[in-house]
Design a protein that fits this description.
Length: 187
């Protein structure tokens, strides 16, 4: 299965971006494939070179609506609120947001073009995610940056966010998709 996942066009296109972002910002980077609101699977990984790493492997599976990626899926997937809430209630978080708070974060994700989870999924860890589209409609993949909150703040959270969005946009274009997200500062 891991060999098949590595052959995904997205994984090949994403790997260089993941390696660069990981190196430049000292974060663990993932490229994930989205399977509706059921789950996501890591299809590409790049580990930071520092002394402390948060690690996962290609083929690792996670609940779709968890963390920053989940906020992207909810923001751009077009799923009914009742369906999102039913799935949301099954998630296991270290410091769970309430559904109303999460919905506000989903709306913010829709506005800014990326999702952020600051310590909800894993205490002390910030997760950023930017959606990638293969076609129109729902995002098919996402780029994910994971790091200790203090380290990401030192590395420059706005710079990481901008680089993540730019990489997701580039991969979307290479895959022939269209992103509904406008670059910051553009009407």
């Amino acid at each position: 299965a891991r060999g098949w996942l590595r052959r995904d066009q997205f994984a090949d296109l994403a790997q260089g971006h993941l390696d660069r972002l990981s190196r430049d910002f000292g974060v663990t980077m993932l490229g994930v494939e989205i399977f509706g609101i059921d789950h996501i699977i890591a299809v590409a990984v790049s580990q930071a070179g520092g002394g402390f790493q948060l690690a996962t492997q290609v083929g690792s599976r996670f609940p779709a609506l968890i963390s920053a990626t989940g906020r992207c899926i909810a923001a751009f997937g077009g799923y009914p609120e009742s369906q999102l809430e039913a799935r949301f209630r099954t998630l296991r978080w270290e410091d769970p947001p309430g559904f109303d708070e999460w919905q506000q974060q989903v709306a913010q994700t829709r506005e800014q073009g990326f999702g952020i989870d600051q310590g909800n999924y894993i205490a002390g860890v910030t997760v950023l995610a930017a959606p990638v589209w293969r076609l129109r409609g729902r995002p098919s993949h996402a780029l994910v940056a994971i790091g200790l909150t203090s380290a990401l703040t030192r590395a420059g959270l706005p710079e990481i966010q901008d680089a993540l969005i730019a990489s997701a946009r580039s991969i979307t274009q290479q895959m022939g998709g269209e992103t509904p997200i406008r670059p910051r500062g553009q009407p």
